[in-house]
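// run 5 | inverse folding | seed 20
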């Protein structure tokens, strides 16, 4: 072979070798970067239980923040099946409304992370009535304790229904109602006291043709005076449905008018649930006898325009609300 031709071939081979080296190096770098990125974004968080819902008297639906699978036989002796983010648990017996039971199990997400839990589940009540928070005070005295009045707008049974001073996952005190059949127009007055006053009947009483049920919270905890929330849910389980709610505030200078971070977060929870919109009821001028009352005869809009602070001495627990504002 001619020396010149040989020299050209050798030079071309060297150039090709250099290009191949560079290309392989780039490919290896890229592959290394891809492996690193995949490892860096791997899911290492355990599934989080978001809500628990009774879908029938013997079936419970557990909702998680991501798709999950049943982990082994951890739900036994109960049976459980996965469906995306949900686990459906079949109980070994039907739960009556107001009854509760414990459910334990473990789930696994599709990255292999597991989460175990033991939760309380409550019986399904298919006969819940329509209910509105109708009147309340938050600045009670020994002589005129704080109360919350609920108005029944459709008939049913309130077994398992729960009233929170706060929100379901953060409350000061709550009341879980028992097996009581109610009719349209009935009223339930919750006394936020350890015991009912002596002159107050514990059973249903008649007040001008209105049936009134007085219920004691059985707690000495007081409602927040100026900034807070009242929430009614269908049962005490995590993630239960909100039936009605009210948000009140004295529009203080801190935490967007709610005074404390806790009160602000509770208000946000109620708004995000869809049970309230717009401004809070202004509690500034309310007292032990100037209640915050729903305007009678007006539709429920889940907002502050439904409410007034009544005139001094204008609280009407167990009777029709007054429309006379302070």
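// decoded
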């Amino acid at each position: 072979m001619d020396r010149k031709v040989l020299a050209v071939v050798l030079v071309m081979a060297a150039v090709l070798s250099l290009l191949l080296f560079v290309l392989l190096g780039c490919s290896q770098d890229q592959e290394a970067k891809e492996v690193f990125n995949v490892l860096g974004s791997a899911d290492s968080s355990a599934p989080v239980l978001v809500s628990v819902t009774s879908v029938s008297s013997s079936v419970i639906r557990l909702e998680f923040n991501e798709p999950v699978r049943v982990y082994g036989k951890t739900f036994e002796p109960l049976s459980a099946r996965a469906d995306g983010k949900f686990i459906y648990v079949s109980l070994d017996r039907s739960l009556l409304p107001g009854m509760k039971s414990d459910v334990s199990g473990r789930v696994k997400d599709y990255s292999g992370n597991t989460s175990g839990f033991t939760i309380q589940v409550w019986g399904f009540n298919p006969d819940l009535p329509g209910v509105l928070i109708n009147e309340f005070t938050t600045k009670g005295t020994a002589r005129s304790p704080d109360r919350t009045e609920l108005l029944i707008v459709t008939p049913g049974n309130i077994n398992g229904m729960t009233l929170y001073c706060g929100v379901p996952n953060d409350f000061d005190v709550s009341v879980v109602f028992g097996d009581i059949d109610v009719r349209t127009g009935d009223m339930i007055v919750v006394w936020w006291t350890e015991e009912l006053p002596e002159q107050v009947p514990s059973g249903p009483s008649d007040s001008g043709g209105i049936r009134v049920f007085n219920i004691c919270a059985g707690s000495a905890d007081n409602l927040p005076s100026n900034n807070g929330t009242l929430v009614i849910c269908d049962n005490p389980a995590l993630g239960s449905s909100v039936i009605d709610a009210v948000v009140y505030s004295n529009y203080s200078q801190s935490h967007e008018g709610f005074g404390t971070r806790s009160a602000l977060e509770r208000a946000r929870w109620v708004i995000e649930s869809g049970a309230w919109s717009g401004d809070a009821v202004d509690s500034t001028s309310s007292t032990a006898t100037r209640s915050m009352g729903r305007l009678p005869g007006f539709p429920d809009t889940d907002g502050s325009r439904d409410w007034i602070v009544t005139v001094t001495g204008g609280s009407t627990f167990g009777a029709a609300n007054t429309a006379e504002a302070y």
